[in-house]
Design brief:
single chain; 476 residues; alpha+beta; 2 domains; four-stranded antiparallel beta sheet; 20 helices; 15 strands; 50% helix; globular
Length: 476
């Protein structure tokens, strides 16, 4: 198909010149995704108000908070108070009452709706640039630094709670706020762009914008923060911190904490959805589409340019500040060898090793990291990161071991027998080099092997019978 352009149609792919312009366009949104400058109230507040206005909703109270963690706690408590007032619930309620009320108060548009807003690809894009900055964030039960951050966050949220509650006159209306803003700004523009372009053009733009920004911010945005915040709230709920929170926000009680744990049901990503907005704006800024839907979309775009995560309510909107630091490696993955890869201004931090979320003490006290702890982690990428942090040689130097079988190709590696403290007999491990994760040490169940040799161990690891297994020419 020949390349054709009008204000309302884009057909036939893209030229080499447009491809160069798209690279510059993608870099602009990469800078948005990695922004560390403080949030600017005079820019984010009008953007949020405009978003509500085109959605046909009353102007909300916009509250800026220092981190996604503060946002989660404040959202939960405020949601509980609004719902309780509107439904004459006396808090704290019984466990069953809390469960039922939580579902109604914090339900919002479903998580699937959020996926539609950002796109599954966006979720993967951020899966590597702040991956929770986290797959198991706060799993270490809030180390000392995180505990301090939670205390500070909680104090901040509670201090500002009165202002939020005093502005409230209605019960929670999460579905309306989320669905209306989403449809008015984001979903509508996506449908309009799809209608105005052809598949090959869309694919070319997608590859030149979303693909570029994904590679450059791989692990430095949404998923890390989402999981980190969600799990941090879970941990705080189940720890001594929960007691302090309950004492401070006795009006919200258990319902507030339960609502806080569900904040991801009603959020929008802001700057953390940069790959998606990069894709949408490329049709306008590079290919020249002038669709009427862009008039409403401009508020969604401004909210992405000037704010982080946000949670929506019919009466208010909580917006998180940007991190004060984001550190990445040469491939754009979140990484810092001696401190947090992400840190917000209230002290809340996330730690990564070449794109993999790891516990804080793995980085801060790497010289004392126990190889046994690393080997016992279930997540394969975390195990690989831990082995890399310690160093394979130092890791095995600390553990008595012997090589049982070897292969000259490092991707096939060795079958080794390792003596782990506390176990009555040694265990088997495959030691090899993975092109993606580097040096690996993978456990093998020797009780399920027909023969104790390298080929049988690799076959067991791959889940195929040894008689059918052959070494791959290239691991993926």
């Amino acid at each position: 198909m020949n390349i054709a352009r009008t204000k309302f149609k884009a057909c036939g792919g893209i030229t080499a010149r447009k491809r160069k312009l798209l690279a510059k366009h993608a870099q602009r949104w990469i800078n948005v995704a990695l922004r560390t400058a403080p949030i600017e109230p005079d820019k984010i507040v009008p953007a949020i108000e405009g978003l509500y206005r085109v959605a046909g909703l009353p102007r909300p109270r916009v509250v800026i908070v220092p981190s996604p963690l503060v946002m989660a706690f404040a959202y939960g408590a405020a949601a509980a108070i609004w719902y309780a007032r509107g439904n004459a619930i006396t808090l704290p309620a019984t466990h069953n009452r809390v469960f039922v009320a939580t579902r109604a108060a914090a339900r919002a548009a479903t998580h699937a709706a959020t996926c539609m807003a950002a796109g599954n690809a966006t979720r993967e894009a951020v899966d590597a640039a702040t991956r929770e900055a986290v797959d198991a964030a706060a799993r270490e039960a809030l180390d000392a630094a995180t505990r301090e951050a939670v205390d500070a966050a909680t104090e901040y949220a509670i201090t500002h709670m009165a202002a939020i509650v005093n502005a409230a006159t209605h019960i929670a209306a999460f579905d309306a706020a989320f669905a209306a803003t989403h449809d008015a700004a984001d979903h509508v523009i996506r449908a309009a762009v799809d209608a105005a372009t052809y598949q090959e053009t869309r694919e070319a733009i997608y590859a030149a914008t979303h693909g570029t920004i994904y590679e450059a911010t791989q692990d430095t945005t949404e998923a890390a923060t989402i999981t980190a915040t969600h799990e941090a709230v879970d941990v705080a709920t189940e720890s001594a911190v929960a007691g302090a929170i309950r004492a401070c926000v006795d009006l919200a009680g258990e319902l507030g904490l339960a609502c806080a744990k569900q904040w991801t049901r009603n959020y929008q990503g802001g700057a953390m959805f940069a790959p998606y907005d990069c894709y949408i704006t490329a049709f306008r800024d590079v290919l020249g589409l002038e669709l009427p839907e862009y008039a409403h979309y401009q508020y969604w775009e401004q909210a992405a340019l000037h704010g982080g995560f946000r949670v929506l309510h019919k009466e208010f909107c909580l917006v998180s500040d940007f991190p004060e630091c984001i550190k990445v490696d040469a491939q754009g993955r979140p990484h810092c060898a001696d401190g947090p890869s992400h840190r917000w201004r209230d002290g809340w931090s996330l730690y990564h090793w070449h794109g993999v979320r790891v516990p804080a003490h793995w980085i801060l006290h790497r010289d004392r990291l126990d190889p046994v702890e690393v080997l016992q982690v279930e997540n394969v990428e975390q195990r690989a990161a831990g082995a890399s942090i310690i160093g394979m040689r130092r890791m095995l130097d600390r553990l008595p071991h012997r090589i049982l079988d070897s292969h000259p190709d490092p991707q096939c590696g060795d079958l080794i027998e390792v003596h782990l403290p506390g176990l009555p007999e040694p265990e088997l491990y495959l030691r090899f080099v993975c092109p993606r994760n580097g040096p690996m040490l993978e456990a093998v169940n020797k009780r399920e092997l027909g023969r104790i040799d390298l080929r049988s161990a690799h076959a067991w690891h791959a889940g195929v019978p040894a008689r059918l297994y052959s070494y791959p020419k290239q691991r993926s």
